[in-house]
Each structure stands twice: as C-alpha cells, then as structure tokens.
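Holo prediction — spermidine.
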Amino acid sequence: MVAKNLKLLVATALVISLAACGSESTASNSEPDPQSTGAFPTSGSGELHLYNWTDYIDPAEIARFTDETGIEVILDTFDSNETLLAKLQSGSTGYDVIVPSDYMVQQMVELNLIQNIGVKDFPNAKNIKPEAMNVIFDKGRNYTAPYMYGTTGIICNPIAEPKCKDMKSWHDFFTFNLAKTDVLKDQVEVVSAALRAVGVPANDLCTTDKSKYLAAQELLSRFKPAVIESDGSIERVLGGISNVRQNWNGDSHRMKVENPDLVYIYPSEGVNLWSDQFAVPVGAPNLDNAKIFINWMMDPKNIAKETNFTGYDNSIIGSSDYFDPSLKNDPAVNVPAEYLPLLSPIPNCGQEARDLYTQVFTSWTTEQ
Ligand code: SPD
C-alpha cells in the first residue's frame, strides 16, 4: 500500500461494502468448478487471450511474462464494465482472462459467466492483503484475484481553465458548463455522480425512487460536455483538447507526472471507490495459462510494475516497496486523510436500479 492511509481506505471500502445498499447477493460458492480442479499448473505454452480495460497493462510486462513463461498474450480492450458484460453475453469470446470491476463480478457470477478457479489456493494468493481477501463480491477469493483499485474524481487544468479550480462538488462539475469539459462514457460513473449531485447519499445509490433519477436526468440535460469518452483521456488533457474531466485517479496521476499544474479534485458529495479484478470466463480455452498469468500478477514485483505503469494502487503485500516515489507523493493516489470519509464503493444495484441507470444515461447521451 502506498501509505497507511490507503490501507485504511481499503478497509473502509470493505466495511462500507458490507453495509452497501443493493448488494443482494455475494459470490460465496467455495467449490471450484470441476474444470478448474487439480494441481496448479507449473508450465505453460501457447496463447492467453486477455480482455482488459484500455491502456491498463504495461506492454513491457506482457513481453516479460511471455519471456518467462513461453505464453503469448493476445490483448483486446474495452472501455466499460457494460461493454465487457455485453461482449461476454454475446457468446463464445475465446477470452481466457477478463478484468471486471467489483460490482460487475457479482453480476457475472449470478449470470454464470465466470468460473470458480479457486484463487485462494493459488501459490501467490498468500500475497493478497487481508482486507482484500474477504471482499463482498467474492468472499474468500474463489473467482477473482485483485488487480488495481482507485477512485473517480475530477481532473482540472487551472492554467488553461482557471474556473475549474473553483469546482468543489459534482454539482459544480455538472453545472459550471465550462468549455472543453470531458466526461467518462460510463453509465454507472456518470449517473452515480449525478445522483450524488442531486443529494442522494452514498448508501442510497441503488435507490429505486424514480424522482431521484428524474432530478439527476434534469441536471444532466443541462450538462453539455465537449467529450463523452473513457479512453484517450491522457492524450486529450495533456494535448489541451480537454481542460476539466471526470476522471479515474490513476490516469490523473499519469497526467500529473507530465503536467504538475493539474489538480485532482475529490468532490464534496462523495467519490466512487472501485477495484478491478482478474477473472476467467466460463469456457476459457486456455485455463492453465490463465491461472499462470493471474498467479504471476500476484507477485509483488510484477504487480508493482503495473502500478507504476497505470498509476493505480493494488492489494498485494510488499508491492509498495517497488513503487515509484511519485505515487507516494501524489494526493490523487495517496488519498489525504481529510478525503477518506468521502470514499464509498460502487454498490451492485438490483435490476430495477440498473435499468434506471441505463435509462438516464441512454436518454442523456442520445440528446447530446
Ligand atoms: N485506463 C483504464 C482504467 C480502468 C479503471 N477501471 C475503472 C472502473 C470504474 N468503474
């Protein structure tokens, strides 16, 4: 962990997760799928098809994995959990490893889209931090192994757009209507921020009260960003195409390394705390290679390289010894104590709330 306060951050997340609204079910089946049993594979060959978020793994590390194991990695990328889910639901994808976020893991277990691979028995599972072992979306770590985790806030370039440094809240973000505003193309991130902006508290983000969604929709209908996109933010912000943006903290860190004038804002109504996980789809063609890859990523030195590349923290014991100092010194990554109470995990909402999120997001993006 970057520092003690981030340990507190994860612990906070887990405590809040346990109390989170709408988390109707948890993945707790402790019996590995029959296909997944047997001794842990010691050597691999052939291919591994990885479906990951865009710009979320160090190409040099993929090459090093291939050198060490003889397994060739074929990478394909997505921009949101919903894109990932739709892809898996569209049928046989040929992917061996995917990277859903916390709430999406629960949905995928319920839909029987990912396998119980018995992660807790992997050789490097001993490196998972205790606070990341008994997570609400995968109690005891059967289906998933931790990759990166982070927050969703606002990045502001106060030199190019002085007004953005006055932004204190999501309400400000949605109502200042500054030129060159950029926002994630992610229905859960956008709608949860809009709900927070109209006064919905963190523990009610899975509300089914339609008046709250109407209020969020009204707020959004007056919000006209120049860009609605999750990918390519680093290039846009550093290239002056975007001056203020709803942004993930690791990408913000990477921007700040290049342009130290940038400021990462923790909006006062609250901030989503999310974590992305390695999982194996049902029917993955190269199961042994998937296990070797996931286990390799739970080695402290290997995962530290990914943290240094992506700018996000991880949940592997000992990896912070290998972190770039810039991570420890950046309040976008090393959350200042005063902001910790603002953080809360994205809850796994029930179907009714999910549909309302979809309706609000779709009607807003359609009218842009
Ligand atoms: N550049 C990819 C960053 C991936 C971040 N995952 C975000 C999950 C948020 N719900």
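READOUT: Residues 53-56, 101, 189, 248, 251, 274, 276, 346 surround spermidine (CB under 6 Å).
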